[in-house]
Amino acid sequence: MKKKRGGKMASQYYQEMQESFRNNNKSREFPAHTAKVHSVAWSCDGRRLASGSFDKTASVFILEKDRLVKENNYRGHSDSVDQLCWHPTNPDLFVTASGDKTIRIWDVRTTKCVATVNTKGENINICWSPDGQTIAVGNKDDVVTFIDAKTHRSRAEEQFKFEVNEISWNNDNDMFFLTNGNGCINILSYPDLKPIQSINAHPSNCICIKFDPTGKYFATGSADALVSLWDVEELVCVRCFSRLDWPVRTLSFSNDGKMLASASEDHFIDIAEVETGEKLWEVQCDSPTFTVAWHPKRPLLAYACDDKEGKYDNNREAGTVKLFGLPNDS
Questions:
Q1: How far apart are CA 109 and CA 63, in angstroms?
Q2: Name one GO biological process term (predicted).
């Protein structure tokens, strides 16, 4: 007999994942940086995890069965690395956005910086287009620059009249989405960058946006502590997730698109079943979470939290990367 939740039958997926997390709910931390970690991301093949830090570096780990083994530390930026992302189909290339007014493309095969691109302002957001041809970077002055990933030259530059938070292409690469400080999602056509629509998504600051791998939904997180799930085709809100109490800083869909992890200053990461909004699991944390990223092939969640409050002495938690979903007996 299926367990009932609130009078509803639990889906088979829900039961399978609950069972999976009952046996695999261990979190482990791995030293990565000398200061807090702002961003974590998996390569498309899931072999490597990259992290970007306030310590001005990026680190890359190799995933070996149930642990991360540090492969390299990437130095070159002269200010905090606020966000990074991998090439969508090439598992060797990743790009970092920094407050030093540059972005840098790195190759894990040579461990070298392939290109340094100078930009106009302090960079805080970055994403790589699904077709791999373009990198978009947003800065503190609400300018988004579109950079050719091969020539490393700027293709276009857009100054926005609102506070730009996170940016993303849709999976089809023909629309560009921005979340903004007024709680709106702005949608532009791509590549001609003409406004298509502005959706009033939240009553307050709309902070983050992620598209699910299947292309059916995207999710936004906002300062009102809500996560909204949107139908990509219809551009309507399908449901809201409201278990967090603090502004939602970071989101990630699992590889099958069926789970959504969301995190904030709350001391847990919420893992929801996308189709029902039900809580599948929560990952306990000691401090606010900055970044979450599901592995592209298995139910393994990488994340990074703030340094523990009140511990300013030599705190080994200063720059760790964490993995959740490891076997309890590992």
A1: 16
A2: RNA splicing
Q: What is the pLDDT of residues 221-232, one digit of tens each?
A: 999 999 999 999
β-strand partners of 230: 218, 237
**Residue 315 clears pLDDT 80, i.e. is over it:** no
Count, in order, helices (H) and strands (E) of the chain. 1, 30
- Report CA torsion sign: 286, 288, 291, 297: positive
Tokens, residue 193 = 């960058």
Contact 213, 240 (CB under 8 A): no
pLDDT tens for each residue of 173-208: 999 999 999 999 999 999 999 999 999 988 889 999
CB neighbour burial string for 104-135, b if at least 16 within 10 angstroms, e if fewer: bbbebeeeebebebebeebbbbbbbbbebebb
SS3 at position 210? strand
How far is it, in rounded angstroms, from Cα 106 to Cα 91?
Answer: 11
Share of the chain residues as helix, strand and coil, in percent rounded to the nearest 5: 5, 50, 45
From CA 120, how far away is CA 174, in angstroms rounded? Answer: 25
Q: How many CA atoms lie within 13 A of 177 on its CB side?
A: 24
What is the per-residue pLDDT for 92? 98
Q: Is pTM beyond 0.70 here?
A: yes
Q: Which pLDDT tens digit goes with each residue over 9-40?
A: 668 999 999 999 999 999 999 999 999 999 99
